[in-house]
Amino acid sequence: MHGADFLRDLAVIMLIAGATTVLFSRLRQPVVLGYILAGLIIGPHTPPYPLITNSHTIETLAEMGVVFLMFSLGLEFSLKKLREVGSTALVAALMEIVVMIWVGFEIGRFFGWRTMDSLFLGAMLAVSSTTIIVKALSELNLKRERFAQLVFGILIVEDILAIGLIALLSGIAVNGDINMATVGATLGKLGIFLVVSLTVGILVVPRLLAYVARFDNDEMLLVTVLGLCFGFCLMVIELGYSVALGAFVIGAIMAESRQLHLIERLIAPVRDMFSAIFFVAVGLMLDPRVLVDYWLPITVITVAVVLGKLVSCGTGAFLAGQSGRTSMRVGMGLAQIGEFSFIIAALGVSLKVTSDFLYPIAVAVSALTTLLTPYLIQSADPLSRRIGSTLPGWLTAVFGLYTRWLGSLQLSGDNALAAAIVQRCLLQILVNLCLVAGVFLGLAALFESGVLAFLPSPLDHKNVLWGAAMLLSLPFLVACYRKQKALGQMLAEMTVRGSAGRYPAAARQIIAELVPLLGIGIMLLVISAVSGSLLPPLETRLVVLGVAVVAVLLLSRQLIRLHSRLQIALQETLETPPDPLKPERHGHH
Amino acid sequence: MHGADFLRDLAVIMLIAGATTVLFSRLRQPVVLGYILAGLIIGPHTPPYPLITNSHTIETLAEMGVVFLMFSLGLEFSLKKLREVGSTALVAALMEIVVMIWVGFEIGRFFGWRTMDSLFLGAMLAVSSTTIIVKALSELNLKRERFAQLVFGILIVEDILAIGLIALLSGIAVNGDINMATVGATLGKLGIFLVVSLTVGILVVPRLLAYVARFDNDEMLLVTVLGLCFGFCLMVIELGYSVALGAFVIGAIMAESRQLHLIERLIAPVRDMFSAIFFVAVGLMLDPRVLVDYWLPITVITVAVVLGKLVSCGTGAFLAGQSGRTSMRVGMGLAQIGEFSFIIAALGVSLKVTSDFLYPIAVAVSALTTLLTPYLIQSADPLSRRIGSTLPGWLTAVFGLYTRWLGSLQLSGDNALAAAIVQRCLLQILVNLCLVAGVFLGLAALFESGVLAFLPSPLDHKNVLWGAAMLLSLPFLVACYRKQKALGQMLAEMTVRGSAGRYPAAARQIIAELVPLLGIGIMLLVISAVSGSLLPPLETRLVVLGVAVVAVLLLSRQLIRLHSRLQIALQETLETPPDPLKPERHGHH
């Protein structure tokens, strides 16, 4: 029968995965490890004979595993959680990623590998494994502890940074070397893409899902969710980013919908199926000979991962004000690599910039560190006690002093409130600028795609599009300006109040005027930077600007109302908690 | 990126499917129809340009759709329900299938098509669509009505008969013509396969699932279920049957497990995803030109499906004792074709025995009849009233007489009880004989596969295997004999009791002895028929038989105990209702 080969391969994989999941749960070992081992055993490199006839199709299915893994990760991510986790997670995650990339890169250089191999190795070691940590903490029954919350926070920040890392690596791999201007442009575009898709997505997607959910039909909701997920991934591929990024972002958008819990329940089986295939496929790609040949790097890297993550995350958490014991537990918990490393390794393979041995090394190190994870977590407490008792007294005193000093830095009262408002203002300005940039970049991409070439137009397409972009951006530009004005007044209040200057009113005036003026400059700069291929000649620009100014003067109230409506809608969505799951319907559909 | 083409295709399909499900629910039309239309629109035959680059991979995914559709159908099937539905469903389904195969075959001949095309057309028209009927009845809010229960019963019987039909068609297609001996052998082997796999499966699988369920981990249960499902499909493919059959049977086996509801909930999203792909892929395979060229056959076949099913199912239901109104509603409800027809059409394509136009015709007829289904169901009542009022009085009287006469045929009291016991005895004998046959056929297949050729053995492999088969069958043979003895005594009681013969005791004795003797003859016949390539020379057979008789005499109590233990275990599983779903766990895994 047609396609029987494929079904046979899939059947072998699912059968093996099923047996593995039972066996490894029974042995109390991580099932993920079992999948990889099972893949290795049935793989093409292992005697007696390969059980998989067409590994290409299986790799395609494994890619769907990446989509669903990242989508689920996105669903568990939430902007609200991110805010709660606060600065500790950011400090620790940044520390970890920078240190580990550097450690990985140096190890690669030490073994005489190529620059690109070393760079990808660094990236592979940077991010810890959410899957494995969540499983280990649940099995040890530690999920509700304080350090576990912190670990989850760090994982969320890591996920975002890893997304940036993936985009960055793709860019570097394509351009061949590390060019700071390119890196800056890549990160800038990524930032604009993330802000625009999150803002537009959170405005549109939860409303669409709420509409679909009214039909009260699980199949319909699932197919819609899958359609949105894959459709967004399609767009992201077209923009040159990876599927992993797309799946994560659309997951994060759907995390803000009220149907979140239902979506999670519906997507879980699909994810479990494809992630099983994904991990078995990881094992399939393993060549045991590479493991034997590269036993030394594997050992070195494994030790480096455990020590490096322990020290970097632990120090990060401690510097951000956590106690020594908590910091130690955080460091121990994060000391492994997992699915993200495979995704990055696969990226290198698919871009053809890394050597063949890198992937099996990543898998081997992940397997070893995964095995160690539960023991490391359990040994955190005894170890931190022993370290505490052997530390000289003066060092303990210094550490205590640092923690207290850090506590005293916290703003309180009026100052804290003012700082929060300024922060909020800056965030809103940034988001609005990103939206403006998104409009211009989007229309520029539309122009470059050549789709419009068929449309007749009395004017030049470029000019029309630039004018349209200007018009579409007006509400955001006006909002930007208003926020900048408010920010100017706030800053004037804050800086001048404390000073003993002779002309406080004048100084205040200057600051309050200067900030929005500076803002207009920035806005013009952003617009000309993102106009790209659309930028019309100077006279056209002046005409359009003139029209825009007149439009703002005439329509300012409408523009402000439109913008504030959008903003309120966005906030509503962000603030509405997801619905609890309804009790199960029992009947057969 | 590697596999991006595939992801793009999948993304287009899921996006289109998502939009379709919303649009068609909004329009209150069957979503299945929307999927097919969407597939047609994005398909390779439709301008402006094909959106799908690699339809091969999509077809492979669509095959997974068949697996999950049939598996779900199996889960909803249950031996218990089958017994409750009783004779009405059997009569109506048999009537429908025979009539529709004949109608389809004749239509094919009328249009001058080849014999094989006509035969497959008949098979395509034979089976109604569970998916479409269930959806239509839920939407019309008629699922709880009496005729709906009857319709579901007929669908269950149809599913079984269709499974046989698929096996039969494969056999005929391979052999090239219809040979009664081959058909008999095919059906016999299919029967043995079904009985053996259901018996062994129901003994083993629910216990395994109960073990896995104790870990209380949805992912583990799902992966195990998928492993069993695909593993069984793999075995079924090796035996030369279709995946559809395998998926249905393993579904029916799992339907007897206590975790049924949980399995249904876990498998639903996977099924929904792949069945969406399946139906879109059906549309992809449609060539609109064929539809235009074959408008006449399509119209004729559509009319034939509606009228043929209405008359055959309606008459079947009426003959089995239903009222005129219920019979009319049953006939109207079943008047369409669906997923099974596509599966049969795809079978013909993959076996390369049917012409290219058959598949699009099946899809077109299915689409038309699907569209008609809700209107037909709604028109059943008015139509049956009108027919009732125009019918001449004497005919109504005859119909009434028939219904009453049929009612009087029902056994009651002692007779009903005795008939039930005899029926049960016969069933048990049949199952045991099938198990014996399964043991012999299984070991014969093992011998023919040549796996054993590597094992050294002092005796001939054949003889050893035949002896082993004999030994393994002993418990079933003993049970068979005991049931035959019991049956003999029952029959003797029943037949002689009523008769006015002069030697009732002697007659009773003769019947009571003759039946088990006849039984032994049948058992020997079955054994020699299924021994196949294993059958050793006469002297070996006699020696083994002698050993077997001695073993039975020595171990009869142990054998009986073993068999009754197995039987009790089987009955326990069959009689334990599935657990209700536990209230949802809310936490993130």
Structural class of chain A: mainly alpha
Kindly estimate the percentage of residues of chain A that lie in beta strands according to DSSP: under 5%
Query: Largest interface here, residues on each chain?
Result: A-B, 75 and 75 residues
Shape of chain A: globular
List keywords for this structure.
21 helices, disordered C terminus, homodimer, Na+/H+ antiporter like fold, mainly alpha, 589 residues, 2 domains
Polypeptide structure, described:
Chains A, B: The chain crosses the membrane at residues 6-24, 31-49, 61-79, 91-112, 118-138, 150-172, 192-213, 220-237, 273-292, 298-320, 332-351, 357-377, 429-452, 464-481, 510-530, 542-560. Chains A, B: It is a multi-pass membrane protein. The structure is a homodimer of 589-residue chains. Chain A has 589 residues and is mostly helical. Chain A contains 21 helices and no strands. At the A-B interface, helix 1, helix 3, helix 9, helix 11 and helix 15 of A face helix 1, helix 3, helix 9, helix 11 and helix 15 of B.
Summarize the structure.
Two copies of one chain form a homodimer. By secondary structure, the first copy, chain A, is mostly helical.
